[in-house]
Write a structure and sequence with these properties.
Glutaredoxin, 5-stranded mixed beta sheet, alpha/beta, 5 strands, 9% strand, 54% helix
Length: 291
């Protein structure tokens, strides 16, 4: 009987504790809420710097985004030579002073520009002197030694040498080349040019084929041929006209129009027949029956 009551009392005590816990939980919740309200009010008065309406985002649980690695620093530009820096500064100063003098041409502005310009001219003169001495000591850098000379005596020797070389070249060309001479019987320039061509033919042995565009004769060329359309093909619009032709290959190249001297003929034929002047017009040799 005692044991029954003891068990009954224990069960009753458990029920009482559970009931008390259930009864106290709303009070505890209310007490916590009151404490939070008091804390919020306290923050409202002590943290006025936040303003009347503020919101703080909760901390995110997501991992932070990886930061991009910083780009490597670009290599520093190579330093300019001090001479270049000085030259650019001088050039800029000269340009600025010139522009100022143009826009406001006072005596002081013009004087400043002219003084700096005189300095630049002086430096350029020193450079020219040094360059000339270097050329004198270095033949491959001397323009008066390379190519066509400027000295009168040297130029005379150069012209004589050139003429000999060109004469040999034209004599060699005479073996398989001819000259086409287009003319009109009423052209005074053609009559003046014909004796030069006849003498050139005799001196260098190259045949001159005279072609009459109007069918008339030409003194010195008794076997002149009448134009059969080749003048139109070669677009001969002015006479006298001379072309260099190679019947074997059919190449034709213009030498010149108008009255030419023997020296000009010699020079032009040698140049046109050389490697740089091998570009020629389409041939019509077979159509005129040269061979």
């Amino acid at each position: 009987m005692k044991i029954f009551f003891a068990a009954h009392d224990l069960r009753h005590c458990i029920l009482l504790v559970a009931a008390a816990a259930l009864a106290l939980s709303p009070l505890m919740t209310n007490a916590q809420g009151d404490q939070e309200i008091q804390d919020s009010a306290q923050r409202f008065w002590t943290e006025s710097w936040r303003g009347w309406h503020f919101y703080e985002a909760p901390e995110s649980d997501l991992p932070a985004a990886p930061t991009k690695p910083k780009a490597a620093a670009s290599p520093t530009a190579p330093l300019k030579a001090p001479e270049l820096v000085e030259f650019e500064r001088l050039q800029k100063s000269l340009e600025d002073l010139r522009n100022i003098a143009i826009m406001r041409p006072t005596e002081a502005n013009v004087r400043r520009y002219m003084e700096l310009e005189a300095q630049v001219v002086s430096r350029a003169s020193v450079f020219a002197d040094v360059a000339q001495r270097v050329a004198w000591a270095t033949p491959e850098l001397d323009p008066t030694v390379q190519g066509r000379p400027v000295n009168a005596k040297a130029l005379e020797v150069f012209e004589q040498t050139q003429q000999v070389d060109r004469s040999h070249a034209v004599v060699e060309l005479a073996r398989d080349h001819v000259l086409f001479f287009f003319y009109r019987s009423d052209c005074p320039y053609c009559h003046a040019f014909a004796p030069t061509l006849a003498a050139f033919q005799t001196r260098y042995g190259i045949e001159v084929v005279a072609i009459s565009m109007d069918g008339g004769p030409m003194p010195g060329f008794a076997h002149a041929r009448a134009d059969n359309g080749i003048a139109t093909t070669l677009k001969v619009s002015q006479v006298p006209a001379v072309f260099l032709a190679q019947p074997f290959t059919g190449k034709i190249a213009p030498i010149g129009f108008g009255v030419l001297s023997e020296a000009q003929l010699l020079e032009r034929i040698a140049i046109v027949a050389g490697p740089p002047g091998e570009a020629t017009l389409p041939s019509t040799v077979q159509q005129i029956g040269l061979r």
